[in-house]
Amino acid sequence: MQVQIAKYLKLKHPDIIFRMDMGGIKLNMGQAVLWSRMQSGRAYPDCFIAEPRSGYSGLFLELKHSKNEVYRKNGELRNLKHIIEQHEMLMELTRKGYYASFSYGFDYTIELIENYLKC
Q: Into how many domains does the chain fold?
């Protein structure tokens, strides 16, 4: 999904500066250790769009294939370590002035990005 979103951004918004995390890319052990050392910590979001809008400094998205990965049917956050860490990171980024959110699937992610960029 990250590759699809990157292609979309390059075609639809060629002047936008963005970055996708390398999560999901297979690294050998040495590369993984080096990559880990170059991060501030765990749970950094998958996508960053460096475009200020409506008082936000930029857009951070944690990409998921479906909402069920993050929330239970009753709307509560799933009690999974990585989901809790990601949620806490998104809340911290929000406190620092960014729009930061979970995003679900390609279509919803594009809708979220377009709505953000229109502001």
A: 1
Query: According to DSSP H, which parts of 1-119 are helical?
Result: 2-12, 29-37, 81-95, 105-118
Q: How many CB atoms lie within 10 A of CB 74?
A: 5
Nearest alpha-carbon partner for 99 in 42, 65, 48, 64: 48
Residue-wise pLDDT for 22-75, tens only, equals 777 888 999 888 888 888 878 999 999 999 999 999 999 999 999 999 999 999
Cα(112)–Cα(106) distance, integer angstroms: 10
The domain containing residue 62 runs over which residues?
2-118
The H or E element that residue 80 is part of is none
CA atoms within 13 A on the CB side of 77: 11
Which CATH number goes with the domain that contains 29? 3.40.1350.10
Say what the pTM is. 0.92
Nearest to 112 by CA among 36, 56, 42: 56
Regarding beta strands 18-20 and 47-49, do their DSSP bridges make them parallel or antiparallel, or are they unpaired? antiparallel
